[in-house]
Amino acid sequence: MHPVEEIRGEKSNKLKNRRIALCLTGSIAAVESFYLCRELIKHGADVVPVMSEAATRIIHPDTMEFASGNKPLLSLTGKVEHVSLCGKDKEVDLILVSPCTANTLSKIVLGISDNPVTACVVTGEKAGIPIIVVPAMHLSMYKNPAIVKHLKEVKRRFDVVEPSIKDDRLRIAGVDKIVGRVKRILGNNDLEGKNVLVIGGASVEAVDDIRILTNRSSGKMSIALAVDAFERGADVELWHGRVSENVPTYIKTKEFESVNDLLKMINSASLERFNVVIVCAALANYIPKKHNGKIPSDKEDLRIELTKAPYIISNIRKKNRKARIVAFKAEERSRDIERRAMEFMNKNGVDMVVANTLSAFGTDDSEIWIVGKDRKILHIKENKRLLAEKIITSVKSL
Question: What are the C-alpha distances in Å from 369 to residues 166, 275, 279, 325, 326?
């Protein structure tokens, strides 16, 4: 057994039974291809490296063979490997050109097939295989009028994961962004055409100019929900407070601190466009009266005045009468949690409640009860990534 099998499906099985031709060209960004390959495999994919001669001068074929468990395609022979892989029999489910140089970008636009990479793309396009192009080049080349024209044509025919530009430097898209796009294209797209808003993370309420009140929420569930909805074809936004991990760069985000900040966002946004709103944020129930400046540190006794926080769910419902609203409700114990969730759902006019105990805060695993208006109750204990998939599936059926 090749060592690659030790990591296959380590993160998810969303790419299980999917074969991807990972095409490398002669950009220095090819050094990142090892990590991209491994990440695809960690989501279950079988990866076949395809390398131009220029790419082999940057990263050795043996490295990519170790990374993938498959011998790289380095040249075309009488076996017509490009036809076997990417022809009408479609041995691969997707062609991923990463990195794609300016030279290769222009060749695939013009239909030039003078190496294994370009031959696979030209053959695969005709066979109807999805193709993702990940540009990597110097900024001056990227802005060259000819490349701009060719890139426009590539975007018309293929899917493009665009680079980032910062301080007059162009950087190839990150591995998480590329893998996210692969999973979206190869997913079942059961949420295609849907607009989903996820509100998550912990609110932060100021006590004075430096001190705050917050809670132990990590925001991990909100990120997992946004990622799963994106991978299933939805147009997703994540509005989040304090979170303990980075949000993937391909997820559109807006940040808030306090409950009142979030309320302003809700009141000023066009919420009508969202089909689904999921509120899993850990928001303050009470807001401290803020002290201007810094409260002296030498006080023997300190009292903080708190007022009831505005209720977000009712404001969301006023702004959008048609959306399916999913609310999370945390309880101290699991006792009577199903009944409490049902009461909460009926009282607040939401379409589904996901109840959990306080033990879920700040952890990777959680135990949840999904309660819907049909009175069906689903009880699951799993890591938050898999729970997010179950929740999104339940939302889809609303």
Answer: 44, 23, 15, 16, 13
